[in-house]
Amino acid sequence: MELKALLLDLDGTLVDTAPDMVGALNRLLAKHDRPLANVDVASKLVSNGSRALVLHGFGNDLNEESIEELVQEFLSIYQQYVCVDSKLYPGMLETLEFCEANKLAWGVITNKPVELAKDVLIGLNLFERCRILLGGDSLPVRKPDPVPMLHSCMVLNLAPSQCLYVGDHLRDVQAGNAAGMDTAAALWGYINDNEAPETWGAKYMVREPYGLLNLVQDLL
Description:
Blueprint: E1 5-8, E2 15-16, H1 18-31, H2 39-43, H3 49-58, H4 64-80, E3 87-88, H5 92-101, E4 105-109, H6 114-123, E5 132-134, H7 147-156, E6 163-167, H8 170-179, E7 182-186, E8 204-206, H9 209-219
Parallel strand pairs: 1-4, 1-6, 4-5, 6-7, 7-8
Antiparallel strand pairs: 2-3
Helix pairs in contact: 1-3, 1-4, 3-4, 5-9
């Protein structure tokens, strides 16, 4: 593999966004006089997005219209607190700096709405350094569809075989593999105890971000 780009999922891979996302959920629950969510339990759902968090907080017996209204309400609250307590995972900054020092492009492909993803990166002073950012609403399809991965390759003028995609969810590995990229499962992310990342089909299993740094160094 001739590594030319490191492409990353956002929530649970590059950035620990759970404090702000679960915080937004609990603000929403409090507004509706509902019991607050357990932070540790709800954090495991962050990679599944706003709908999963809303259903966790309000239950599965809501009709589709109510769910959509609550999701929009959640997103409105979250937008106000999008990067208050969110932070890079330890070791990720060093990984990005290594990429930049060695002329490796790095970028983010997430299912999070692109404006919210952009706000997170701006809050962490990373947006101007990111070579590409795709959100779940940037294209007509999103992960696990490989199109966002292939689109990123086109923008970067790289072959999929020159890219490593890293994520903490099955859909990340599925999208990367389908696009012809090497993939790595981010085991430090928001993975529930009943999930088995060793079955996802990732080429690499990485336990913590410093391990990702070592992997990128080895692949050069």
